[in-house]
Amino acid sequence: MPRTLVLVTGGSGFVAGHCILRLLEHGYTVRTTVRSRSREADVRAALEAAGMHRGDALSFVEADLTRDDGWGAAMRGADFVLHVASPVHTDAVADEHAIIGPAREGTLRVLRAATAAGVKRVVLTSAFHAVGYGHGHVDRVFTEDDWSPVDGPGVDAYGRSKILAERAAWDFVRDAGNGMELTTILPIAVMGPVLGRDVRGANQIIQRSLNGQLPGYPNMYVPIVDVRDVAAAHVAAMTAPDAAGQRFLVGSGEPAVAMKQIGATLRHHLCDAAKHVPTRTVPNVVVRLTALFKAEFKPVAADLGYVKRVSNEKSRRVLGLNPRKASEAILGAARSMLTDPAVHTGRSRRH
After folding, report:
1. Based on the number of CB atoms within 10 Å of its own CB, is 203 exposed (0-12), middle (13-18) or buried (19 or more)?
2. Residue 306, C-beta contacts closer than 8 angstroms, at least 6 positions apart
3. CATH code for the domain of 218
4. Residue 351 domain-assigned?
5. What's the pLDDT tens digit per position in 224-248?
6. Is 162 a catalytic residue?
7. Which of 5, 105, 101 is nearest to 58 (CA)?
8. Packing angle between helix 97-117 and helix 157-176, nearest 10 degrees?
9. pTM (predicted TM-score)
10. 350 belongs to a structural domain
11. Residue 48: Cβ within 10 Å count
12. Among 120, 162, 275, 298, the one annotated catalytic
């Protein structure tokens, strides 16, 4: 069993938590960052509830993406870094620089500290937003060779933060990385078992379906990947010889799922627990009119009726991934939420 030390940034996050579980399961020693050490007890409790093994091999250090303090200590002795931490906002924001700045500058702060500490390889969590948004309704399969235009249709502040942060990372490693290797992971919409009570990202579709907050589904198609496969991709990308200097799209390999089909899957498998899941579709004209007044609906309006096709060939071939079906991610998310009424109803959501 390896005794390698891996630093995971943003340990209180959804993807980061699953990466920690995967690393510990595979025998690694893990250190993770949190913005405040007061979060350690909650994070440990969430990981233990998810079945964490070897919790004594996990340690915490305080470090914030907006400050230099703590990153030297966080990196000390680390062989690899999984830089997962990044601000995630699904609602409209008054100042998009509040997302883009911490994502880009935080990424550079982590890379500078990793270079100074002699880290072998950094695996950076990017997103499909950096590949498959802003192109319009093109009829082709997206691959790792694609980049989203920063100001293309449907690219929001979160998407811009991912594009700019990943581009900055590649530029840094090329110009100042001192031989350190970089790999980026670009998952499509991430769903799957929640950790603790904080529901984020695409899992909010499941939460709002179950608790009746969604009046209906727009005519939108979502390419889905299970968070456990995203974690597996990060861990494999640390050591796969051919992964250095590469981008990897991570997806189920299936066609994007209609949002109404997400609802149908929940109703079919969860029966009474899915009694609030909507059955109707929101007309396109309603979504487009809403997008004129609410910025968070603009990306939805831009992709109405458009089925994005995403290749996962490279992650299968180089990282050895055999991803779960989208339905497993949908039901894994739902069943984990139903075990805690506060998560199911959305009362636990922090703003």
Report:
1. buried
2. 137, 221
3. 3.40.50.720
4. no
5. 999 999 999 999 999 999 999 999 9
6. yes
7. 5
8. 20
9. 0.93
10. no
11. 11
12. 162
